[in-house]
Amino acid sequence: MAALDSLSLFTGLGLSEQKARETLKNTVLSAQLREAATQAQQTLGSSIDKATGTLLYGLASRLRDPRRLSFLVSYITSRKIHTETQLSAALEYVRSHPLDPINTEDFEQECGVGVVVTPEQIEEAVEAAINRHRAKLLVERYHFSMGLLMGEARAALKWADGKMIKHEVDMQVLHLLGPKTETDLEKKPKVAKAQPEETDQRTAKDVVENGEAVVQTLSLMEQLRGEALKFHKPGENYKTPGYVTTPHTMDLLKQHLDITGGQVRTRFPPEPNGILHIGHAKAINFNFGYAKANNGICFLRFDDTNPEKEEANLPLGAPAWLLILSHCPPGYTPYKVTYASDYFDQLYAWAVELIRRDQAYVCHQRGEELKGHNPLPSPWRDRPIEESLLLFEAMRKGKFAEGEATLRMKLVMEDGKMDPVAYRVKYTPHHRTGDTWCIYPTYDYTHCLCDSIEHITHSLCTKEFQARRSSYFWLCNALDVYCPVQWEYGRLNLHYAVVSKRKILQLVAAGAVRDWDDPRLFTLTALRRRGFPPEAINNFCARVGVTVAQTTMEPHLLEACVRDVLNDTAPRAMAVLEPLQVVITNFPATKALDIQVPNFPADETKGFHQVPFGSTVFIERMDFKEEPEPGYKRLAWGQPVGLRHTGYVIELQHVVKGPSGCVESLKVTCRRADAGEKPKAFIHWVSQPLTCEIRLYERLFQHKNPEDPAEVPGGFLSDLNPASLQVVEAALVDCSVALAKPFDKFQFERLGYFSVDPDSNQGQLVFNRTVTLKEDPGKV
């Protein structure tokens, strides 16, 4: 009942039911939001408007000091704080003024309380912004970036309502330019860059959400540079909310600055055998991008602390990081490729020091005793330091079996987990250190210390690692070593997909997919095999941006990025999936003609390829109908069609049918296209073609959230789409692709974008459909 009451309370604030349920999963956030909403209802009654509810949710999700909750709620319910800008200022004020009492006069001044921005002031600010850009606005009209006008007006009137500014911009622009014309509605053409290698200088596209101007870039550079992300400056770690200082902190930060020179340092830390998926692509862009945007460096560090996971059949070493690099934008080169195992000696020495400081102990509780929410405290927590030192050395020398002893740290984490394990016994040989070690550090122990060794300034992690932040700070401070700052951001997920390694293994075992690189999955190897260019994946990550909240996107948004890239990079060819033979009875030559087909019809400077055009051609079966429905424009009785690129039009003369009555072939005559009336349609065709296999892919799952029991009660394996793969074994393709290699990409005219599959051999090419030419409205 409590959960239902909270759900009703949260939806009453304007949250969607899905958002409310997600909030309930976060015990800290839901408790804080429940308290804020309850207090607000005492002032406003049971009905709270959506604008106030949005502010209360923003307060509960961003406030780090619960002592200030009641104080800030009172300002929201009294309408003294009524905009997102004011709330942000208020949160920043209480963060930077942690001591009691709060100077309310100073607080209200810093938060714009009581400041009234009149419509006349907004009108004047917008008019001034338009006048500054008037000439360019008149030239570009509605292709001009209106977000620039809103941003300048907002800068002049800090406390103005964003919706009012947007409305005023819309009105004044409409008055200046008049209604949109057909030209205004056309897609803005791409402008060639003078220096195409500088990928970080792309133009920002402005979007407006909830009346607030939000800049959505085509590159992460604009977000990652400057003030878009409120990260600390190198050496100013102590200014970060929640950062724990000690008497040694300032000296350690000074030593850190002496070593790094104030340089930004990040790291991307996958497992060596990790199956990289679309979420990792965002992490790659964020970690490498933030370093590059701030003239810093990024380490590529493999977390190889568990020898049991480093299986030989999965990518290790160079192949793994080369795969990662293949999905990095140009210029995202690791400063250094490192492994956690590089630091095993130092990590062991620090573990000994931790015991000496009475901050760790050897424990004999079994793994099953440590599971669950409230495991029993260890009876060995207070054992003498010297005893733990001797036992840890015994662990090191292999005197304990696996599971008989662990080294545990003396702390309680945010999620209530007590005394996390630092070292455990494992007798599996390590892929890099062999049999040198039989004890291995855990992620909880290794993560922060490797960051410290490499002097990482910004340890960027996804949100699920927030529960480990306390152990991160605690461990560095317990050893008196440099303590970086861990920042969390929201994971990137996709609907109609699973990315968990365990669940993909289940899919493979069930025969639902072939392997990790099955093109229906969203691992990077699968996307590569399907034909998704790295540039498209990176562009998608840039459009998604960096948020604290978890982001779940529709696959069609990723596919749109793929189309944008392939439209400019995939040469055209012609293929027929369901061939219908067409014999031209009056073919104008005794042998096949050579037809020059542009690789990119929109830009013939990119070259041509040659295909034969003979008296027998093959067209798509769906491009002919004996009894067409109204509006059908392709080949039919009395309705000729053009053959693309040939300059010829064909007209039906005879339909050849087999014994069953099925159409087997057509006989047609041809004429020059300029020798008569222009046909209603031009269709693709092939002549003297190659036979190939074409694999057509659809979504692997039928529901948006296949892992959600509420949506799919039978589990994700029960949600498989039986039509997710269609294999066309005898498709025909023009001979221009005869020398294509695996992963080469083409646009098959009128069909979609296709990539050569590694299953291809000298006898037969195999193509994977990457995406269709246009988005399927039924999938949105």
Task: Write up this protein.
There is one protein chain. The protein is α/β, with parallel strands linked by helices. Among the domains are: 6-111, Helicase, Ruva Protein, domain 3 (Orthogonal Bundle); 119-180, Arc Repressor Mutant, subunit A (Orthogonal Bundle); 220-339, Rossmann fold (3-Layer(aba) Sandwich); 501-569, Glutamyl-tRNA Synthetase, domain 2 (Orthogonal Bundle); 575-684, Beta Barrel (Ribosomal Protein L25, Chain P). It is 34% helix and 18% strand. The strands form eight sheets. The chain has a seven-stranded mixed β-sheet, covered by helices on one side. Helix 15 links the parallel strand 3 (265-268) and strand 4 (297-302). Helix 10 (146-156) crosses helix 11 (162-177). The longest helix is centred in the N-terminal third of the chain and has 18 residues, at 27-44. The chain starts with a helix and ends in a 9-residue tail after the last strand. Residues 193-219 and 311-321 have low confidence and may be disordered.
Q: What are the defining features of this structure?
A:
780 residues; alpha/beta; Helicase, Ruva Protein, domain 3; Arc Repressor Mutant, subunit A; Rossmann fold; 7-stranded mixed beta sheet; 6-stranded mixed beta sheet; 25 helices
> How far apart are the termini?
36 Å
- Cα Rg: 32 Å
Mean pLDDT equals: 86
For the largest beta-sheet, the strand count, sense and barrel status come to: 7 strands, mixed
| DSSP, total strands | 28
Percent helix range: 25-40%
Question: Total number of helical segments?
Answer: 25
CATH topology of the domain at 220-339: Rossmann fold
Strand order across the largest sheet: 14-26-27-28-24-25-15
Q: Unreliable segments (pLDDT under 50, ≥5 consecutive)?
A: 193-219, 311-321
Globally, the shape reads globular
- CATH top level of the domain at 220-339 is Alpha Beta
GO molecular function: ATP binding; glutamine-tRNA ligase activity
Function: Glutamine--tRNA ligase. Plays a critical role in brain development.
Main location: cytoplasm
InterPro entries: aa-tRNA-synth_I_CS, Gln-tRNA-synth, Gln-tRNA-synth_Ib_RNA-bd_2, Gln-tRNA-synth_Ib_RNA-bd_N, Gln-tRNA-synth_Ib_RNA-bd_N_1, Gln-tRNA-synth_Ib_RNA-bd_N_2, Gln/Glu-tRNA_Ligase, Glu/Gln-tRNA-synth
